[in-house]
Amino acid sequence: MFRALYSFRVENPKPGTKPNPLESKEGKHSGMIELFKQPNIDWMGKAKFFFALSLLLLIAGWTSVFLKGGPAHGGLPYSIDFKGGTNVDVRFAQAPNVDQLRSALSAQGLVGNEIQAISDTAIPGAKANEVVISLEQKGQADQALDTSKSQVLAALNAIYGQSNSSRPDFNAATPNSLTAFLTQRDPLLLSTNAGDRYQQLAKNILQYRDKDAGGVLTNLEDVTKVPGVTPAVVSSLKEGYALGPFTIRNVEIVGPKVGAELRLQAVYVTLYALAGMLVYIAFRFEWVYGAAAVLAVFHDVLITLGFFSLLHFEISLTVIAALLTLVGYSMNDTIVIFDRIRENNRLLRRESFADVVNKSINQTLSRTILTSGLTFLTVLVLFLMGGQVLRAFSFALVVGIVVGTYSSFGIAAPLVVAWVNWRGQGQAVGAGPAAGSKPRGSEGASGRLAPAGRRS
Amino acid sequence: MTPNVKYKAVFILIVILACIYALVGYPTFPTSIAQVKDNFSKEIKLGLDLQGGTHLILQVQVQEAIAQETDQTVDRLTTQLRAKNITYDEVRRVDDTHIAIRNLDPKGLDDFRNLINAQYANFWDLSPTAGDQAGYTLTLRQGAIAQIQENTMSQSLETIERRINALGLTEPTIQLHGRKDNEILVQLPGEGDPTRAKQVIQAGGQLELKLVRDPAVYTSQADFMQKHGGVLPAGTELVPGRAPRTATGAAADAEVWYLLDRAPIVTGRDLRSATENRSTTNPGQYQVNFALSADAAKRFGPFTEGHLHEQMAIVLEKSVYSAPVINGRIDDSGEIEGSFSQDTAHDLALVLRAGALPASIKYLEERTVGPSLGADSIRHGVQASVLSLLVVMIFMLVYYRISGANAVLALILNLVILLAALAVFGAVLTLPGIAGVILTIGMGVDSNVLVFERIREELRNGKSAASAVQAGFDKAFLTIIDTHVTTVVSAFFLFLFGTGPIRGFAITLTIGLIANVFTAIYVSKTIFQYHLSKMDRQAELSI
Fold this sequence. Notes:
The complex is a heterodimer of chains A (about 450) and B (about 550).
Chain A: H1 2-6, H2 47-67, H3 80-83, E1 85-92, H4 98-107, E2 114-118, E3 130-135, H5 147-160, H6 175-185, H7 197-212, H8 231-240, E4 246-254, H9 256-284, H10 287-311, H11 317-347, H12 353-363, H13 365-385, H14 387-430, H15 434-437, H16 441-445
Antiparallel strand pairs in A: 1-3, 1-4, 2-3
Helix pairs in contact in A: 2-10, 4-5, 6-7, 9-10, 9-11, 10-11, 10-14, 11-12, 11-14, 12-14, 13-14
Chain B: H1 3-25, H2 33-43, E1 45-46, H3 48-51, E2 53-60, H4 62-83, E3 90-95, E4 98-102, H5 109-120, E5 124-128, E6 136-140, H6 142-167, E7 173-177, E8 183-189, H7 195-202, E9 207-211, H8 221-227, E10 236-242, E11 255-261, E12 266-267, E13 271-278, E14 286-292, H9 294-306, E15 312-316, E16 319-322, E17 333-340, H10 342-354, E18 361-369, H11 371-425, E19 428-429, H12 431-460, H13 465-497, H14 500-534
Helix pairs in contact in B: 1-2, 1-11, 1-14, 4-6, 11-12, 11-14, 12-13, 12-14, 13-14
């Protein structure tokens, strides 16, 4: 049943291909579910199409980068990590009046700022009650780093008058302060037997505030839903605390120099890592394999960055980690295919190199589809469910895994084949002693590249 | 079960138990589910991005400490040359690392050389000044600069640590940051408002007592320049401060500038203690009294005696707090007057006690993650991870049947080992760390798929179950090693050259990959061997 649904056979095998020596013994392992039984696709014959596709993707993405001002000036949407500036993420109890907020901010001297409304979909039925106020880095070098943040806070207080209440804001209470408060008030009348009861209670209450209420409580009565909270607890909370109309969820302030440094560092780190891989693969296979693999991975990173520019996802330090993940993943994929090529190269000496590569890709195809499919599924779930913090991060992985899988057979392998064919021809013309200079035997002369490593 | 398989199974079991113990077994051995949870949350430390808290990166202005060293050297050298009756025209600081001695009397040259060799040679290189016959230049050695930098950094680190610890926050992290060796990372988990911590870190960086060279005060730097022909006298600087209370002409709150000796007589390093007290002169206000170390007192006593009726400025963070007149010899105590409240006097005394920073600091980065955002990230991250793991596992079970169970076991074990290793090394789980975990899971799935597909191929070629399993593992082994080593190589470079989040990623990834080689090859193969030993030789392998 499964087989009927999922297996397929390419109907027009390349003319002249020999029958597969690994012919299946049908019937013996009848319970196996298989995606591909005996794929026989001429991947290398489609290399031109792959190169064209990659070129198209690269051009699409990087046209966007350059139209938007080039990689250094806004073409790549850097997050605050890389461009410097101030971000203040505020969640309100009620949906804020953005116009009012804007005028309060300009009253504080913040002009040309950018207010982005963000609706938080994580809380069912919630309105757009969260805003991120992003401010450009100011030019003055002597200005304190957090000047803009203080201005934003002043603007918020000007509107909502949080500082009017003499009681502290419950939405800003920390576990320590709440524990101290509860212990001092002792609403459960535990006196000296309290132990860590109040600590636990404070933790539970704040967990309720942060997880269930999304960080902003609008009514202290809601706390009764927390196990262990008695009316006495609620009434002491009411006496001791006020409820602020907003809470600061996240503040990021990055100095201008740091941003540029981090950007440079991220580029260097990635290049070093690629160089390291190049050397290792060159050592295990041949340098052309290393070069092809690194080029393919580089291509993946460029395409993914292009998508970031096209769809305007912000590139942060976390996204760099995701890009590095995709580098590792794509490299893994490429090596699996290269490994098969190395092995088949020993076994199938009479076939052309392109056929060997085709066969290797076909043999590893079900593994490729399975692994990529499962990993793709994993990051897709992360992308859909991961919340706002993980969105750009998982987006890089969603794009990266598709591109990374494709580049292994679409870019890396054809590059090696192209090189081998080119070199083979060059040698045929030059009839060079190069073939004999390395102990490669007849393969060298015929243009077949014999990877280093174990040879039987 | 063959003995070989038995030993392997025992070994695997020991690893599993050790990992579980590392995760939930201590500090106290758990007797209830709640304790297991508690231990687990203690062992797996979450990064600030997941837990909430404040993250500050500050830069120590090391150059200041170098400049200070040069100033003090000029001062010391001048005194010593005078004492030895060596005459010269001028000893002048050229820049932060150079001192010029102009027109040294040739008769004193030998004494001068001896003095430099005996007391300055470890820090300074002596050379004749180009184009000046009787001129000499002292150049601060590279090694000395490095040493000053190192001392400044370690002292700053210690000082900030003492100050932060005095605030009584939970588990603060204070450590050197980055590869440029002048940055310090301060992390305050659970701290939503960094204002107070920042004040305490920054406050009272440097206390210096400096001689006032000119009893007059100036309204601005330009004012001074205008009155004195546009040049600062050698070895002096202009420092702003509040106008003295007795001053007439300037309003009480106006900023005024003092002409001070560049080299301090006493610095914060010379303090023995500092306490806040009620002001003796202004009722209702507070002052900070300090006492000097015995060593500093030896210098301070003679100095004050020699400068009776002159003013001495108390400079805190490059601002003159007060400039009292020296009325008599002072050996080891002094006071800082200002319009302090009890709280501000208390914080200042705390900072002075904890020790002054050897150089001022500048903030480069400030991040505060509120507890609700951290909770959101964890919730979303955990939900998504669990769901995707479930999907992967169910798929493996459906697609590879009984062998799929083997893969699922290997995956779970991989995660357990990874978490246990994080716990043992005290590594912190951050968002980029989760990226590392995802790549690990991806490669874990991949290793299993590689092996299983290989086994299937061998089965299709007509091999028996046992030899297909053997061949499958053998052939996939090289591939798995190659893919893993390549990734570890790149992780190594990330660790070497990256900072913060990128390092976290590299660490998680490396541990995960090592665990993966163990689970996907060793553990999985052992389970297969066990399975094969139990089943009929002719039976079909469920894969």
